C-alpha cells in the first residue's frame, strides 16, 4: 500500500488501552509525504503505483470505453460533439460540467487548429484534468493533538468500511488512532467498527444503546487524555432529506466542538460512486448542514461511471481526499486528478 498524507512531526506515541487480540493483517511499508517535502509528491513503489492504476482503469473501464470509442477514426464535426455530450451525460458528469467541457473543447479546437481525433481527445483530457485539479488536496496529519474527524454518509455508501481503511492507513503512517461508534441507530455499524478495531488493535469507544453525541464527546475526551493522534467518529447513516436526522448530525458536531475547541478538524462525507447525480445532491445537503472539509468516493469499480467528480468540481468543489475501488485496504487511495483522468480517458 502507498499513502499520500502530508505529515507534521508528532510527539512519541502514548500507549493506548489494548483492544481484543487483533486478526493479523498483512502490511507493506507505507510512504509518507512529510511537511518538509514539496506538496503532492507521494513517495511510492513503482509496482504499487502500477497495480493501483490497473485497478482504477478496470473500475472505470465501462465509461472509459464509451468515451474512447468516440475518437476512433472520428471526424471533428458536430456529430462528434453530440456523441461526446451524450457520453459525458451518461457518465454522470451532469449538465453544467458537460456544457463547460464542450464549450472549452470547441474553443480549444478552434484556437489550436486541431485537425485529428487524437489531438481532440488529448485536449479533452487536459481540460478535464484542469477541472478536477481543485479537488485534489493532500490529507495533512499532525495539525492537532488529537485530530478529530467526523465522518458521515448515507447507509450503503461504505462509510464504516472506509473508516477502517483510513485507520489502517494512518497507523501505517505512525499515527495512534481511536475510533468512536457514533452510529448508534444501526447495531450492525457498531459491530462492524468493533471488528475493524480488533483487526488493527485499535480501541473503539462504544455504547450498546447510547446518544451518538455523548459517544462522540467521550471519544474526544478519551483521545485527549491518552495523547492519541487521531480520533475518528462514525455517525449514523441517513438521507439528506431526513431533516430531523440531519439536525442530529449538527448536534453531534456541536458537542464535538465542546469536547475540544476547533473540533472536528475534518468533516468528511463518504459517497458511493455509483449513485450518479444523487451523489451531488448529497454533497450539497451535507455541506450546507456541516460545512464539509473533504469527500471520500467509494465503489468506483464495476458499473461506476466516475463523471460525478466533474459535476462536483463545477457545482460544489469540496476536496476529494480519497477514492476507493474495492474492499481491500490498498483499494482506498488518494485522489490524483491526472491519474483519474488517465484511467477515465486512457
From TrEMBL:
EC number, as in UniProt: 3.6.5.4
Keyword Oxidoreductase: no
InterPro entries: AAA+_ATPase, P-loop_NTPase, Signal_recog_particl_SRP54_hlx, SR_rcpt_FtsY, SRP/SRP_N, SRP54_GTPase_dom, SRP54_N_sf
Membrane topology value: Peripheral membrane protein
Keyword Membrane assigned: yes
Reaction(s) this enzyme catalyzes, per UniProt: GTP + H2O = GDP + phosphate + H(+)
HAMAP family with a match to the protein in the record: FtsY (MF_00920)
Family membership: Belongs to the GTP-binding SRP family. FtsY subfamily.
Subunit and partners: Part of the signal recognition particle protein translocation system, which is composed of SRP and FtsY. SRP is a ribonucleoprotein composed of Ffh and a 4.5S RNA molecule.
Purpose: Involved in targeting and insertion of nascent membrane proteins into the cytoplasmic membrane. Acts as a receptor for the complex formed by the signal recognition particle (SRP) and the ribosome-nascent chain (RNC). Interaction with SRP-RNC leads to the transfer of the RNC complex to the Sec translocase for insertion into the membrane, the hydrolysis of GTP by both Ffh and FtsY, and the dissociation of the SRP-FtsY complex into the individual components.
Protein name: Signal recognition particle receptor FtsY
Species annotation: Duganella zoogloeoides
Amino acid at each position: 500500500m502507498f499513502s499520500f498524507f502530508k505529515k507534521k512531526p508528532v510527539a512519541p506515541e502514548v500507549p493506548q488501552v489494548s483492544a481484543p487480540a487483533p486478526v493479523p493483517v498483512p502490511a507493506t511499508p507505507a510512504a509518507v509525504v512529510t511537511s518538509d517535502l514539496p506538496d503532492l509528491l507521494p513517495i511510492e513503489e513503482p509496482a504499487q503505483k502500477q497495480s493501483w492504476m490497473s485497478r482504477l482503469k478496470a473500475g472505470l473501464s465501462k465509461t472509459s470505453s464509451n468515451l474512447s470509442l468516440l475518437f476512433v477514426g472520428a471526424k471533428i464535426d458536430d456529430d462528434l460533439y453530440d456523441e461526446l455530450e451524450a457520453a459525458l451525460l451518461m457518465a454522470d458528469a451532469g449538465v453544467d460540467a458537460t456544457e463547460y467541457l464542450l464549450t472549452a473543447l470547441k474553443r480549444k479546437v478552434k484556437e489550436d487548429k486541431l485537425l485529428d481525433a487524437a489531438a481532440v481527445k488529448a485536449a479533452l483530457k487536459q481540460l478535464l484534468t484542469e477541472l478536477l485539479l481543485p479537488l485534489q488536496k493532500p490529507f495533512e496529519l499532525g495539525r492537532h493533538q488529537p485530530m478529530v474527524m467526523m465522518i458521515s454518509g448515507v447507509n450503503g455508501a461504505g462509510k464504516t468500511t472506509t473508516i477502517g481503511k483510513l485507520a489502517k492507513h494512518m497507523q501505517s503512517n505512525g499515527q495512534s488512532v481511536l475510533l468512536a461508534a457514533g452510529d448508534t441507530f444501526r447495531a450492525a455499524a457498531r459491530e462492524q467498527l468493533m471488528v475493524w478495531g480488533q483487526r488493527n488493535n485499535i480501541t473503539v469507544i462504544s455504547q450498546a444503546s447510547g446518544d451518538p453525541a455523548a459517544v462522540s464527546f467521550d471519544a474526544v475526551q478519551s483521545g485527549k487524555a491518552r495523547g492519541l493522534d487521531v480520533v475518528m467518529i462514525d455517525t449514523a447513516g441517513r438521507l439528506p432529506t431526513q431533516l430531523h436526522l440531519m439536525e442530529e448530525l449538527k448536534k453531534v458536531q456541536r458537542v464535538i466542538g465542546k469536547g475540544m475547541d476547533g473540533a472536528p478538524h475534518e468533516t468528511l462525507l463518504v459517497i458511493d460512486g455509483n449513485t450518479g447525480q444523487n451523489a451531488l445532491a448529497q454533497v450539497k445537503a451535507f455541506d450546507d448542514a456541516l460545512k464539509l472539509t473533504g469527500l471520500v468516493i467509494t465503489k468506483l469499480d464495476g458499473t461506476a461511471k466516475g463523471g460525478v467528480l466533474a459535476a462536483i468540481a463545477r457545482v460544489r468543489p469540496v476536496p476529494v481526499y480519497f477514492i476507493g475501488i474495492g474492499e481491500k485496504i490498498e483499494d482506498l487511495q488518494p485522489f490524483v486528478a491526472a491519474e483519474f483522468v488517465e484511467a477515465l480517458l486512457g
